[in-house]
Write a structure and sequence with these properties.
Helix content is 31%, strand content 29%. By secondary structure, the chain is α+β, with helices and mostly antiparallel strands. The longest helix has 18 residues, at 229-246. The structure holds adenosine-5'-diphosphate (ADP) and magnesium ion.
Length: 396
């Protein structure tokens, strides 16, 4: 029986673990957390720090795995690539993995390939950041060079707020550097794709509703994005150019863009699928394509045909509650049972309290739904939301 190594075993990896087992593979999973939810579905659980790629390599060698992969999380992408390189297994390559998870390298590669980019600088301290912001001109956006989920990302409109933003970005930066970028204006979009060598299949394109500044997390994603045909074509073309410029030759990708007055501009691209179960659940429901199956066959070095069978509309709607404490929660099963609903996740428990939401991590849950039209998918979301009972008390 062939074995695959899945790096990290959080809840988001469950669909991948399950699909691998359905394909008759034995699953070895690693995670730093001994209580990781995915361990219960894996055949073998190994507690290893994800960033320690040599320790993950040791696990891979000991179990003689035929493939190594991850999904949904950027942290594991460089580790997976290094382990694959070291074992001579299919992977995106360590240098590409780094470029796909480091915003400075990513933009530098795209710039070198002739793609228009917003102004950007990488800075190691507040003085450098002040100089960069002065050169670029306010407003700017400050973010860690290598994090995700909008952690430590702040839009800065006046110089007086820069230092706090840099401190917050530094706190989430693995490399100890931050990016200062020109703040682009426009509607945001993400382009979900599957890459197989030269061949790029665009699975879906959304428009996004964002939270209010100065934070930058998503409130809602609507597929297909409500853009003109010309803009949708430009998003698809730009995404293909970005994937080639960064050098990603396999796997699921998640590209984020802003449709500015001057055209489509890159925010970032990830060498993994869109989180919040979009790549693992929503896109398969919208397209009928076995995305995870193709991904697994691909890392095994086998042909990975991806057949898009339909084009349903899809919505990812985040639940963001006002500050307070949950006194009563009910209706999760009823919400999940609404026709068209692909999944409902709640990240809060009864008795839990919280403050203002500042990053994607702080959101309180989400609803995924599909429909023949965007309106039908939105109706399913509303029906699910109506069945969720979340009673709040102001937290004293
Ligand atoms: N240069 C920019 N101009 C305008 N908005 C930006 C820019 N860069 C990032 N953002 C906003 O901040 C969010 C988070 O930034 P991103 O680079 O995607 O970091 P993360 O890895 O945390 O998702 C983006 O989704 C977008 O809304
Ligand atoms: Mg992002």
């Amino acid at each position: 029986m062939r074995k695959v190594l899945i790096v990290t075993a959080s809840r988001q990896q469950l669909p991948l673990i399950r699909r691998a087992k359905e394909l008759g593979l034995k699953v070895v999973a690693t995670d730093r957390d001994p209580n990781a939810v995915g361990f219960s579905s894996a055949d073998v659980a190994e507690v290893v720090e994800t960033l320690n790629w040599e320790a993950v390599l040791e696990v891979a060698c000991r179990h003689q795995v035929s493939a190594v992969l991850t999904e949904q999380t950027d942290v594991a992408v460089p580790t997976v690539a290094r382990v694959a390189d070291a074992m001579g297994l299919p992977g995106i390559g360590a240098d590409v993995a780094l470029a796909a998870s480091n915003k400075f390298q990513m933009r530098s590669r795209c710039l070198a390939a002739g793609l228009p980019m917003p102004q950007f600088r990488m800075c190691g301290n507040i003085e450098e950041a002040e100089r960069a912001a002065r050169d670029i001109g306010f407003p700017v956006i400050v973010k860690p060079t290598d994090s995700q989920a909008s952690r430590g990302v702040t839009k800065v409109f006046v110089a007086a707020r820069l230092e706090a933003a840099v401190t917050s970005a530094m706190a989430h930066s693995h490399s100890g550097t931050v990016m200062i970028e020109e703040l682009m204006l426009g509607v945001e979009s993400s382009v979900e794709a599957f890459v197989d060598g030269d061949h790029i299949t665009t699975l879906a394109i959304c428009d996004k509703t964002k939270c209010a500044p100065p934070y930058s997390y998503d409130i809602r994603l609507v597929y297909p994005g409500r853009f003109s045909r010309g803009t949708l074509d430009e998003l698809q073309r730009t995404n293909e150019e970005v994937i080639r410029a960064v050098g990603i030759r396999m796997g699921i990708t998640h590209g984020e863009y802003i449709v500015t007055e001057r055209g489509v501009r890159l925010i970032e691209v990830a060498a993994r699928g869109c989180g919040a179960r979009v790549a693992t659940d929503l896109l398969p429901a919208m397209t009928g394509a076995d995305i995870l199956g193709a991904r697994i066959l691909q890392v095994l070095g086998e042909p990975a045909p991806l057949e898009v069978r339909r084009h349903l509309a899809g919505v990812l709607d985040f639940i963001v509650l006002p500050p307070g404490r949950a006194t009563h929660i009910d209706g999760l099963d009823a919400a999940n049972a609404v026709p068209g609903v692909v999944g409902v996740e709640l990240a809060v428990r009864e008795g839990q309290s919280w403050g203002d939401v500042r990053s994607a991590d702080g959101r309180h849950g989400y609803i995924l739904a599909v429909g023949e039209t965007v309106e039908a998918a939105m109706q399913a979301v509303s029906a699910a939301r109506a069945r969720l009972q979340i009673e709040l008390a102001p937290d004293a």
